[in-house]
């Protein structure tokens, strides 16, 4: 081909000189760019191993090709999607035309052999060149019109200089494609139907072979300038995403294309999930979250390098919209800039050791007042998922926020003081508010006094053979006044429809969502293991597909459905609006429709963990429509719904910065003119009720009600419920024989081994269900992340709490055993004594075995009491009036231990200056049974300025 080009009659000394100049100038640029690519690869590869990022490669490839070439993540802004599609293809396929310039500088009349004569090639060149010029001009104008100085602009904080440079070069390249082609037509003719634009431009240009070569050289050198400038700036995501987006989409968490929503990513150590079971196998210093750049998994670094700074995440973030310091875009780009600036320390640790200019300073630390991420930024996140949902290159913001929080809680004991009370309440009482577990029975007693049947598993029914649903009430549904009204409404509707269900009453404990979202991963795992043991006992003999749970709390729904399968908890979980919608469709509930002149205006707020995280949008709206209400949608709804401010454990923290998120959302709801704000989550109910009181005039304030209460009111006949239908299964039940052993009766759920140790499930692990559809609908809900990304623990660990006596081995207790329940000695140092629990099931370490290492920093004995919110905070639920005692159960409910019966993983104390824990090597011997294991002293919390008023 080279000889053909040089022998071309169009080749002249001038064009030859131009061609040689192009090659000579290109070589250094290409070498510099290739070295930059190698440096970027080493930078990303220096990260810690990531988990399950290469499985199902064909599915990943298909997802990547679909997202890239069909722009499925950009369709929310159609005009931008079309413009970007032309620019992207112009960059990719136009690269072929760009390399053709090397030929055209030497021989202006030449081009690619073979394909250069195809009409389809010339048509593609024409369309893409024109589309690139128009598309980049549109995007350029869009960036200018949006501005970069206004806080609410999505381009605020973006690197505008880099964006304008990249867009200008792409614009010149597009023009170069058109001008080279037009000048060839002007010089040599041969225009065809494919040259519908360039032949018109050719009429304006002189016939000159030198002009063709000059245009080709300009096109070539413009690209060389782009390569050099981009290679010099590895933190220009607006340029590098053109290469990295393919890889970032390919290595996403969910190969099938679902966003990284629903379940939180597992905490990793050396690329494998770190659980209470695997803690002892994780080495002397397991990685607890991400505390410095050296701990970051490579996917986190790839995410940071890929960010194009488009600002779609920032545009939807509730924290940013209410004057908080958190911007998801700036969160990612700040990590990227710090990582690039310190890339030498990541890729070559010896350099870091030899550089004494940073002696005494941890340049790789991520969180701190003088570090990359400020604490206020980290703790402002509500985990609503708007950033993840909007990101066109699949950056996983929530996973990175949680990893940083995990390190702050588990390794640094540095977190907002309000969380001390939350952790202590969950650890000792099994609920966020520290209420006595017996109070979970109060709403049941009230309902029974009113003649409403509420079957309690373990009291009224002792197996699941004649049941179809287990109603998981949740903490808010049992303790909060508004939550109890929703619970009562659901029970009344189930009773009226003849649904066979039961509740656990005092057998429930918190699912652990607040603990996990606040970063206390081990406390979450303990709660999850206890609940899974209880639920597996309840569902013993029930096959997969019929282990049905309904719940009114969006957070319980998400945790039970998406996170418990990682701990051998495989259940079919439904939100109450899904089941109630089916009952209406099946005519088991009959709402009385309103007349046309009596259609009450209602607006609906999408709970983030029901809607965006799990894609349940339609059932609540269907129910509202069936009640005859006039549904008025807020501007921000469904996937773009605005958070109420309670997620990410923010429900239990003060909102001291900016305006309150719940007030922002309440103002939007009030502006619709609706008389009722319908919700599908008790957290949303609390937050919006508080917000409405602040933003609305008393006479015009709408009422906040759960969808279930609105449906219940619509089925009333003369103010009373219809006669209940006979109890019947909605679907034919399938049961497997329960395992019987006369010598050793079956244990439904076993208590923890030691204070804070997990419980093992007795049910044989089953294959996790593939998505959970609305009841009666075979297809799973679209877009829901599927569980199962973490291996199911083979056995449940026995991690003794430091300071607790090691109990002797004993026999396994059973429900039918008449022997008195033994107790475990109270740990030496915690201020809250542990109640009596059954004798532990798993074997106790025998003398000579290695002593398990401590897991997380223990709370100091002087830990503050649960925080009392200051004015403006969401108050805890009020204490209900004592009700008459329920009949004494004859057989205890499975798992109905005082939840949790013993202290769970110790709660870190904020403000303590403890370094990242170094787990000691196992000692050669174990203390004699009964000897106390010394408990390490932990400094008392040292509240920072402004925190005193938040503590009680």
From TrEMBL:
**Entry keyword annotation includes Nucleotide-binding:** no
Question: Which GO molecular function, any one, fits this protein according to its record?
Answer: oxidoreductase activity
Q: Does the keyword field hold Lipid metabolism?
A: no
Q: Which residues form the 4Fe-4S ferredoxin-type domain?
A: 298-325, 369-401
> Which residue stretches belong to region Disordered?
726-796, 810-952
Going by the entry's taxonomy, the superkingdom of the source organism is recorded as Bacteria
Basic and acidic residues compositional bias, start-end: 726-744
Where do transmembrane segments lie in this chain?
A: 20-41, 79-99, 119-142, 162-181, 201-222, 234-251
Put simply, this protein is called Protein fadF
Can you name the source organism?
A: Corynebacterium vitaeruminis DSM 20294
């Amino acid at each position: 081909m080279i000889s053909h080009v040089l022998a071309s009659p169009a080749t002249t000394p001038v064009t030859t000189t131009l061609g040689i100049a192009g090659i000579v100038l290109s070589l250094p640029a290409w070498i510099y760019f290739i070295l930059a690519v190698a440096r970027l690869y080493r930078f990303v590869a220096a990260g810690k191993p990531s988990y399950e990022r290469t499985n199902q490669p064909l599915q990943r490839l298909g997802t990547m090709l679909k997202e890239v070439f069909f722009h499925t993540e950009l369709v929310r802004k159609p005009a931008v999607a079309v413009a970007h599609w032309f620019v992207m293809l112009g960059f990719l396929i136009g690269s072929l035309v760009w390399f053709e310039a090397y030929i055209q500088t030497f021989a202006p009349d030449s081009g690619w052999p073979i394909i250069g004569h195809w009409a389809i090639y010339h048509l593609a060149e024409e369309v893409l060149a024109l589309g690139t010029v128009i598309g980049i001009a549109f995007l350029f104008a869009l960036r200018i019109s949006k501005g970069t100085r206004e806080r609410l602009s999505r381009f605020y904080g973006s690197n505008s200089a880099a964006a304008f440079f990249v867009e200008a070069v792409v614009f010149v390249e597009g023009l170069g494609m058109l001008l080279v082609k037009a000048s060839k037509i002007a010089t040599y003719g041969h225009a065809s139907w494919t040259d519908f634009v360039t032949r018109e431009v050719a009429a304006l240009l002189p016939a000159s072979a030198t002009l063709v070569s000059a245009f080709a050289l300009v096109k070539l050198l413009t690209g060389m300038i782009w390569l050099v400038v981009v290679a010099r700036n590895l933190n220009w995501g607006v340029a590098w995403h053109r290469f990295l987006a393919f890889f970032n989409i390919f290595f996403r968490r969910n190969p099938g294309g679902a966003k990284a929503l629903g379940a939180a990513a597992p905490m990793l150590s050396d690329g494998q999930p770190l659980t209470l079971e695997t803690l002892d196998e994780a080495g002397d210093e397991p990685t607890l979250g991400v505390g410095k750049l050296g701990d970051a998994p490579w996917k986190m670094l790839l995410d940071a390098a890929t960010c194009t700074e488009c600002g779609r995440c920032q545009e939807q973030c509730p924290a940013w919209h209410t004057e908080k310091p958190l911007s998801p875009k700036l969160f990612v780009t700040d990590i990227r800039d710090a990582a690039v600036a310190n890339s030498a320390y990541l890729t070559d640790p010896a350099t870091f050791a030899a550089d004494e200019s940073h002696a005494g300073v941890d340049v790789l630390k991520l969180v701190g007042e003088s570090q990359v991420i400020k604490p206020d930024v980290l703790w402002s996140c509500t985990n609503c998922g708007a950033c993840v949902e909007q990101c066109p290159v699949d950056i996983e913001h929530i996973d990175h926020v949680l990893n940083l929080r995990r390190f702050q809680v588990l390794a640094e004991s540095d977190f907002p003081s309000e969380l001390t009370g939350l952790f202590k309440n969950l650890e000792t009482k099994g609920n966020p508010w520290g209420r006595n577990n017996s109070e979970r029975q109060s709403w049941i007693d009230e309902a029974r006094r009113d003649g409403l049947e509420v079957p309690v598993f373990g009291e009224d029914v002792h197996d699941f053979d004649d049941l179809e649903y287990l109603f998981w009430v949740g903490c808010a549904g049992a303790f909060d006044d508004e939550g109890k009204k929703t619970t009562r409404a659901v029970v009344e509707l189930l009773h009226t429809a003849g649904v066979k269900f039961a509740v656990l009453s005092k057998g429930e404990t918190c699912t652990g969502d607040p603990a996990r979202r606040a970063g206390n991963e081990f406390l979450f795992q303990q709660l999850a293991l206890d609940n899974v043991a209880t639920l597996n006992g309840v569902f013993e003999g029930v096959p997969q597909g019929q282990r049905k749970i309904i719940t009114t709390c969006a957070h319980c729904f998400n945790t039970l459905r998406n996170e418990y399968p990682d701990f051998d908890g495989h259940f079919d979980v439904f939100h109450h609006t899904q089941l109630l919608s089916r009952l209406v469709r099946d005519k088991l509930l009959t709402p009385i429709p309103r007349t046309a002149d009596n259609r009450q205006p209602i607006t609906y707020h999408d709970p983030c963990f029901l809607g965006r995280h799990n894609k349940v949008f339609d059932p609540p709206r269907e129910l509202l429509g069936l009640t005859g209400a006039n549904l008025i949608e807020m501007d921000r709804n469904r996937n773009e719904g605005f958070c109420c401010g309670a997620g990410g454990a923010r429900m239990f923290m003060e909102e001291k910065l900016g305006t309150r998120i719940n007030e922002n959302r309440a103002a939007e709801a009030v502006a619709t003119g609706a008389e009722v704000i319908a919700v599908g989550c008790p957290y949303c109910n609390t937050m919006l009720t508080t917000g409405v009181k602040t933003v609305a005039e008393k006479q015009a304030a709408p009422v906040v009600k759960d969808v279930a209460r609105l449906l219940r009111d619509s089925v009333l006949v003369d103010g009373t419920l219809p006669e209940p239908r006979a109890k019947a299964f909605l679907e034919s039940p399938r049961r497997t024989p329960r395992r019987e052993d006369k010598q050793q009766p079956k244990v439904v759920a076993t208590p923890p081994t030691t204070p804070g140790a997990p419980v093992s499930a007795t049910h044989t692990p089953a294959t996790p269900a593939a998505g959970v559809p609305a009841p009666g609908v075979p297809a799973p809900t679209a877009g829901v992340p599927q569980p199962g990304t973490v291996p199911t623990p083979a056995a449940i660990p026995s991690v003794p709490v430091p300071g607790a006596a090691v109990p002797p081995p004993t026999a396994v207790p059973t429900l039918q055993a008449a022997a008195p329940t033994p107790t475990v000695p109270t740990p030496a140092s915690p201020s809250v004594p542990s109640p009596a629990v059954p004798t532990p099931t798993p074997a106790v370490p025998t003398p000579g075995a290695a002593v398990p290492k401590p897991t997380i920093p223990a709370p100091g004995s002087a830990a503050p009491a649960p925080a009392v919110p200051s004015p403006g905070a969401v108050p805890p639920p009020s204490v209900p009036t004592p009700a008459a005692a329920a009949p004494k159960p004859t057989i205890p409910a499975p798992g109905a231990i005082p939840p949790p019966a013993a202290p769970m993983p110790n709660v870190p104390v904020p403000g303590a200056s403890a370094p990242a824990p170094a787990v000691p090597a196992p000692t050669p011997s174990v203390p004699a049974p009964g000897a106390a294991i010394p408990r390490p002293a932990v400094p008392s919390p040292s509240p920072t300025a402004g925190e005193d008023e938040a503590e009680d």
